[in-house]
Amino acid sequence: MAVRAVTAVTAVTVVHAATAMTAACAFDPFLAACWRDLVQRSDVLPHPDRHVLLHAGPPFDGMPPAPVSNAAVQSALSEGQTGNGRTAQTMLSSGELRLLP
After folding, report:
1. How far apart are CA 62 and CA 47, in angstroms?
2. d(Cα 80, Cα 6) in Å, to the nearest integer?
3. pLDDT single digits (tens) 44-82
């Protein structure tokens, strides 16, 4: 009997959460945002050099902060500029892979 009571409470909670999410989406359309299509940068922005990655924000003096550096490494991997993260990090550190705002 106790198990049924917990199940009923859980079901009510899930329904309530779904209703709250639907109501919240009416006020915040980005609440349920997700990636739909991912394309390579070179397909939509062919004009920058292959070793240039664009970022939001001001230029960095020296190495970018770790989150930006990690994102640049992931971008280099997804663009096929290198086969592994260590090489991408080396390219970024040496200036072979550049970040431009």
Report:
1. 25
2. 50
3. 877 778 888 888 888 888 888 999 999 999 989 988 888
Burial (CB count within 10 angstroms: exposed 0-12, middle 13-18, buried 19+), residue 71: middle
Angle between helices 66-78 and 85-94 (to 10 degrees): 120
How far apart CA 64 and CA 16 sit, in angstroms, is: 43
pTM of the model: 0.57
Nearest Cα to Cα of residue 53 among 79, 87, 16, 24: 79
User: Are the CB atoms for 63 and 69 separated by under 8 Å?
Assistant: yes
Are 75 and 53 spatial neighbours (Cβ–Cβ below 8 Å)?
yes
What's the rounded Cα separation, in Å, for the pair 64 and 68? 6
- Whether the CB-CB separation of 48 and 54 falls below 8 Å is answered with yes
